[in-house]
Write a structure and sequence with these properties.
GO molecular function: endonuclease activity; nucleic acid binding; zinc ion binding
Largest sheet: 3 strands, antiparallel
Number of strands: 16
Strand order of the largest sheet: 4-5-6
Mean pLDDT: 77
Organism: Candidatus Brachybacterium merdavium
Protein name: DUF222 domain-containing protein
Oligomer: single chain
InterPro entries: DUF222, HNH, HNH_nuc
Low-confidence stretches: 1-7, 484-557, 562-570
Distance between the termini: 67 Å
Family: Belongs to the Rv1128c/1148c/1588c/1702c/1945/3466 family.
């Protein structure tokens, strides 16, 4: 009886929501902003005067977890609506300005009036409206206009993911910025690839998302990635920005390998000094060592030999246009030509050994080649296990190569520790399958989550479950394009009818040949065995300094869209 009585109620509720939705569509944006304003007023009143809403003595933690989840979903939907509103504002303003120009010339557009000039003027007006309506600076409003237009017109899948709370606005807008140099059809292709990767990126932070976008662009357009790398390399520079309280920020735009080596050298020196009793913070010591060395002070660092892992598939090594990506340890994906150039430089005999980076008495070996294996369908690095309780150095480094960044859900920190997913006490093994790279904070997982375990199926998936029952699944970085997902079944939701048409993603590379081989590490004078060797099964001699310190990302600006004038910036 209860089932029969509940069914009409549920049906009536669904019908009522559909009627509300139909009314909103029928009455247009005027009805939408009025309804949104009413709800915004209620939320504002509760935020200012919550009364007993947030009384922790009356409500349990699970209730607030669900509230946070609902607020996140609502915010994501609003962010998606804002992107559509900004794009619509731009389009309506352009239309009005073009009509006004025609009215001024007796309804005929004067040949001397350039359409592009009218659109730029319209974008200036739109930027001003966005600045005043959203309290953004003019430059930020201009960037929001450019990215929103790109999201709505060229990224229908990412827009839908934002509207349903599967990604954040920060990730979508950063993706739109990264797609700026591409043509419209290529942006749609990358959007489709990212949509297929959504399950793998469920728990990815902004760093992993940035790596995924970079990899998708590189696979789609390897020649273009090389050109963009060469163009970016010409923009090397050093800037000093004043900050608060008599401090300044020093920023150097460098090739990725050099920047990673600099950071690693500073981090190793900081760890050495702290081990000797220095009480300064790790990052404070790094900053002091940088200044002392550059200015030639007494505490300057001595020259030393460093190594850094650079991973590339055998296909990309032989054929840069194969579409596979390369990775730099502690950085992420880079154009294949970048690694090939560094590898050639490492193997090239210096013209003058006295002036070489290793010196006349240094070892002849400058690069160690190791053969690594990738999973046949996911493209992830795979290897073997050890009998030791602690991860051997070589195996710990392998985890850092495979995972790239901390495997904690949505974490962007650099890997600092190797962790057993299933602890030794619970029967876990010291193996690549049971290991993951984590930062120090996420390695306190027993205090953070209710359950952490490997998921069944292909690839190295780790499922994190919170005390409230929320789950996120993390995956490592893929060196090759993962196998495409199953095609959509009839009845599944597709993209909007007014959105851009779907475009096919690049085909997965042929994996019928031998296992993919990687190169790593590319060293600066670190002696070691030459040739291609399998990953170690036990503790093996490891090059000095395998730790990877925390990094800080810098910002960049949006390139203009091709085929449509970009709004001006101040």
């Amino acid at each position: 009886m209860s089932n029969r009585s509940c069914t009409p109620v549920a049906a009536d509720g669904a019908d009522h929501r559909q009627q509300q939705l139909d009314a909103l569509h029928e009455n247009g944006p005027e009805r939408l902003w009025k309804e949104t304003g009413d709800h915004a007023h209620l939320l504002s009143e509760i935020a200012q005067e919550p009364r007993g809403m947030f009384d922790v003595e009356k409500h349990d933690s699970a209730t607030y977890v669900q509230l946070l989840r609902t607020l996140h979903e609502a915010r994501s939907a609003i962010d998606a609506l804002e992107a559509r509103s900004v794009d619509a504002l731009s389009g309506a303003t352009r239309r009005e300005q073009i009509e006004a120009a025609r009215d001024d010339t007796a309804h005929e557009l004067d040949p001397e009036i350039v359409l592009e000039k009218i659109e730029k003027q319209a974008d200036l007006l739109s930027r001003t409206e966005i600045t005043l309506a959203t309290r953004r600076a003019p430059h930020a409003a201009s960037a929001a206009l450019t990215r929103s237009r790109r999201i709505v017109r060229d990224m229908p899948h990412m827009l839908r993911a934002l509207a349903t709370g599967k990604v954040t606005a920060e990730i979508v807008h950063e993706t739109a910025r990264s797609l700026g140099p591409l043509e419209h059809v290529d942006r749609r292709a990358v959007d489709r690839v990212l949509d297929e990767r959504l399950p793998d990126l469920d728990a990815a932070g902004t760093t992993r998302w940035k790596h995924a976008v970079t990899a998708a662009i590189g696979r789609l357009d390897p020649d273009g990635a090389s050109r963009r790398h060469q163009r970016a390399a010409r923009d090397r520079h050093v800037t000093v920005t004043p900050v608060n309280h008599g401090m300044a920020s020093l920023n150097a735009r460098l090739p990725a390998r050099d920047a990673v080596l600099v950071r690693k050298r500073l981090s190793l020196e900081a760890e050495r000094l702290r081990a000797q009793g220095d009480h300064r913070g790790h990052h404070a010591i790094m900053a002091d060592c940088l200044v002392d060395t550059l200015l030639g002070r007494e505490d300057a660092m001595d020259p030393t030999m460093l190594d850094i892992g650079m991973i590339i598939t055998d296909r990309a090594l032989i054929d840069p246009g194969a579409g596979d990506i390369a990775q730099i340890e502690g950085y992420g994906p880079v154009p294949v030509d970048c690694v090939r150039e560094d590898l050639r430089a490492a193997l090239r005999e210096p013209a003058d050994l006295q002036d070489g980076p290793i010196g006349p008495d240094g070892p002849d070996l400058r690069a160690v080649l190791r053969r690594l294996y990738t999973h046949p369908t996911t493209g992830e690095l795979v290897a073997v296990e050890s009998k030791a309780r602690a991860f051997p150095k070589a195996m710990a480094r392998f985890l850092a190569w495979r995972d790239t960044v901390c495997r904690g859900p949505h974490c962007n920190a650099v890997i600092r520790q190797s962790d057993h997913i299933r602890s030794i006490a619970r029967g876990g093994k010291t193996s690549i399958d049971n290991g993951q790279g984590l930062c120090a904070a996420c390695n306190l997982k027993e205090q953070m989550a209710r359950e952490i375990e490997r998921s069944q199926g292909s690839g190295h998936r780790v499922r994190w479950t919170s005390n409230a029952g929320l789950t996120r699944t993390t995956t490592p970085t893929s060196l090759t394009l993962p196998a495409p997902p199953q095609p959509e079944q009839p009845g599944q939701v597709g993209v909007d009818a007014d959105s851009s048409a779907r475009t096919g993603s690049p085909p997965a590379p042929d994996r019928s040949g031998p296992p993919a081989a990687g190169i790593g590490p590319l060293t600066e004078g670190a002696p070691g065995p030459a040739g291609r060797i399998a990953p170690p099964t036990e503790a093996a001699p490891d090059p000095p300094g395998t730790d990877t310190p925390r990094s800080r990302e810098g910002g960049s600006t949006d390139p203009p869209d091709r085929g449509a004038p970009a709004p001006p910036s101040d």
